[in-house]
Specification:
The protein is mainly alpha-helical. The chain folds into two domains: 171 residues, Up-down Bundle (Growth Hormone, Chain: A); 199 residues, Up-down Bundle (Growth Hormone, Chain: A), CATH 1.20.1250. Helix content is 81%, strand content 0%. It has 18 helices and no strands. The longest helix has 33 residues. The two termini are 39 Å apart.
């Protein structure tokens, strides 16, 4: 419930901030920059602040993060707040999300100790997250248009307070995973753990490949336009991917432990093959079907998060998941920017999606084969 509230609030805030900045400046560039600031700070905050999830009690850290975000968003809702302050506050809210997400991964592992339950828990969190995004996509623009940016941001601040209360009352306090007096679990330490563990390295490669699934979102407006679709179809196309993810994650959460590990390979390939089919320049309905299929495949991401959490030391889960999450966000940003440049060069958004999707599908196939061989070797050993 806390995840659903904060995710829906995040979507609402992104729309409100973009609208508020555009109203103040009349510049689409500034508006886009403000929206980007809701995502980019996590690239640095993940490796730097993610280790806090191992050095501090995780429930307390999550509650404090939610309350800090509530205060910052409430400040953004004050009429007439200077633009510079608004942008800094947006960046701070995004940065604080990094230790929250790292602590969340650790809490799931603490509560659901069996491998199957851990992966199922991550999958259900993914369902909740995507449902929140769907709610934000469906209602964000309407809420901002109806009540204005000030009240919309106030609602977002309230969602963070509600999430803090739910987490504080609903989770049992547990001690920190690491003694804070021990050496700092920094990004370098997490990177060494990943480098020394071949299966984890392979899983991290599959996480990075999931970045390619963000490409259609980055060029969704020209995709719809070139398919002769109306402007309102943009929201539907964005929702198609979320809907597919919910379906895939629901199935994955119900699978057994052995099948969950096998599904990582199958779903990884499925997430990218439909994007390669954009080469046929599909109309709106086929495009929506392909995006739903890609979303179903992307449900391998929570399975991988659970698998990585099981394969690294318990007291380094926060540092490693923070690093992996930052790498995913960086990959998504690079993939979207690259696709935009490619779409401009090819004069076709669909072909840009197809090219990146085909390249990603080939790499995912190679990684999937290696993952299956890894599982076979581990099962042979017993």
């Amino acid at each position: 419930m806390a995840e659903a509230l904060s995710t829906a609030g995040d979507q609402l805030a992104r729309v409100a901030v973009a609208v508020l900045v555009y109203e103040r400046t009349g510049s689409a560039v500034w508006s886009g920059f403000a929206y980007a600031m809701t995502l980019l700070p996590g690239l640095v905050a993940g490796p730097v602040l993610g280790p806090l999830a191992d050095r501090l009690p995780r429930r307390g850290l999550m509650v404090v993060c939610c309350l800090q975000q509530a205060v910052l968003v409430a400040g953004m809702a004050v009429p007439g707040v200077p633009l510079g302050v608004l942008v800094v506050a947006v960046a701070a809210v995004a940065a604080i999300a990094a230790p929250f997400k790292a602590a969340q991964s650790g809490v799931v592992l603490d509560i659901l100790e069996s491998p199957q339950a851990n992966k199922a828990g991550n999958a259900r969190l993914g369902i909740v997250r995507e449902t929140g995004q769907l709610a934000g996509l469906a209602g964000g623009a309407a809420v901002v248009a109806t009540v204005g940016t000030t009240l919309a941001l106030s609602l977002d601040a309230a969602s963070f307070v509600a999430a803090a209360i739910i987490l504080g009352l609903g989770l049992r306090q547990r001690p920190a995973a690491r003694d804070s007096a021990r050496p700092h679990a920094d990004a370098g330490g997490a990177l060494r753990i990943v480098a020394a563990n071949p299966p984890v390295r392979l899983l991290c490669g599959l996480v990075l490949l999931c970045s390619v699934t963000a490409v259609p979102d980055g060029v969704i407006a020209p995709l719809v336009e070139q398919a002769d679709g109306p402007p309102w179809a943009v929201t539907l196309m964005l929702a198609a991917d979320c809907l597919g993810f919910i379906v895939g994650a629901r199935f994955a959460s119900r699978a057994g432990e052995r099948l969950q590990r096998d599904l990582i390979a199958v779903l990884a390939v499925l997430s990218l093959v439909p994007l390669a089919l954009f080469a046929v320049r599909p109309g709106l309905v086929p495009m929506a079907v392909l995006l739903v299929l890609s979303g179903i495949g992307a449900a391998y991401l929570p399975l991988i998060r659970g698998e990585i959490a099981e394969r690294v030391p318990r007291d380094r889960v926060g540092a490693v998941t923070g690093l992996v999450g930052s790498a995913l966000r960086a990959g998504q940003g690079l993939a979207v920017v690259g696709a935009g440049v490619l779409a401009q060069y090819l004069r076709s958004a669909a072909m840009a999606v197809a090219v990146t999707g085909a390249a990603g599908a080939c790499l995912s196939w190679w990684c999937a084969v290696r993952w299956i061989r890894t599982l076979q070797a581990e099962r042979a050993i017993g």
